[in-house]
Amino acid sequence: MNSVNLELYLVLDPVLCGGEDGMVRTALEAVRGGCTIVQLRAPGWKKRRLAECGRALLKALAPSGTPLIVDDHVDVALAIGAQGVHVGQQDLQPQDARRLMGPRAIIGYSVSSGRELALCAPLVQEGAVDYLGIGPVWATATKPDAASPLGLAGFAELAARRPCPAVAIGAVNAGNAASLAGAGADGLAVVSAICGQPDPRAAAALLLHAFRQGLSR
Amino acid sequence: MNSVNLELYLVLDPVLCGGEDGMVRTALEAVRGGCTIVQLRAPGWKKRRLAECGRALLKALAPSGTPLIVDDHVDVALAIGAQGVHVGQQDLQPQDARRLMGPRAIIGYSVSSGRELALCAPLVQEGAVDYLGIGPVWATATKPDAASPLGLAGFAELAARRPCPAVAIGAVNAGNAASLAGAGADGLAVVSAICGQPDPRAAAALLLHAFRQGLSR
To answer: According to the record, how does the cofactor bind (chains A, B) (predicted)?
Structure first.
């Protein structure tokens, strides 16, 4: 299993960030505020645009060493040399992603239920998956096709059985960050808690502070 | 440049074919009627479904040696071991597709204007592109986001300058097949002229017959 710092996982939203330039700016500010890993996710975009934006993000993130994860598109990740890919239950199988990306790539997988989680253990054992995104914890507007929310108790139940590190996702914000740390999250995945915020750097710092407070309780 | 028989290029439409099973049946019947190459194109599908359908098509097409081309998704093509990929102007760059797919893969590229065609010659020279899809020749319902139609004269103008073999696409049918052969097409790319037809095998044979008549004039 490749080790990765999941503490504050930013999922960039092209609309909330206001396009490519805004995505790069948001990512850089968030990293200055403590964000540890960045995902490029733009389900409505064609791949040429994704690749261009991804290359700009890679360049911007290189000095800090922050890994860039591409949502869904293994081919875009390979073409631009991103550090990893995140796949969902309807995307390519994690085993296929691993075979194409090689052993050093970071591969994440989305899990929304106990049944899906149970099927993950062998994927982690065989080295296909490095981390999980467990959610949505709460209902979110930034992913209209998401599964039904788990709630905090439902998240804690899944997190207790996680076979590898996992981030909590779905309406995560500074107000619930500490409770998620207490519920077993290894990190927070956020969209609107950073994207579109007036000060993404301060927003990131606040999230991280709240999460760490929850860990130390 | 990898050599490929483009004479009758079937682009499978999941709706017209009635889902996965219908796509496999349509492809097999079309091949029996003379179809030389098959493309899997389902823009609304997620990749796990695409990969599953693609694997079923590969298995069905293997005995005849008919190549399977995946539209847009280089990662799906790689994951399932398809013979090639077709990219459009907004998809991954053909050079990226070539780098990821290797020298033996069949790589096609869509061209809709003289400007786009002019930019293709170096791509062909450097070995990134094996064939072109030139169109739409006429307006078509099966690709709502297509560029404006070229018309037969416009197609002929582009085909005369093609730096590699090219198929005509866009409302191609048995009635206009001969004229496209006369206008310089190396093959016909069809969707609704085969998909959803009561007898896809007979439809393919009719298209091929008309195209060859046009060539021999």
So the answer is: Binds 1 Mg(2+) ion per subunit.
B92 touches chain A (CB under 8 A): yes
* H/E stretch holding B117: helix B114-118
The candidate with the shortest Cα–Cα distance to B171, out of B192, B197, B195, is B192
CB-based contact, A47 to chain B, within 8 Å: yes
Q: What pLDDT digit, counting tens, does each position of A91-143 carry?
A: 999 999 999 999 999 999 999 999 999 999 999 999 999 999 999 999 988 77
| 8 A C-beta contact, residue A152 and residue A179 | yes
Q: Are B48 and A79 within 8 A, CB to CB?
A: no
| Domain B8-216 bears CATH identifier 3.30.750.24 | no
CB contact under 8 A, B49 and A89: no
CA B64, CA B183: separation in Å to the nearest integer?
30
Of A75, A89, A93, which has the smallest distance from its Cβ to B73's Cβ?
A75
Q: Consecutive sets of 10 residues in chain B, 217 residues long: mean pLDDT of each? A: 94 97 98 98 97 98 98 98 98 98 98 96 97 96 84 98 98 97 98 98 98 93
Task: Give the tokens for residue B55.
Answer: 């694997």
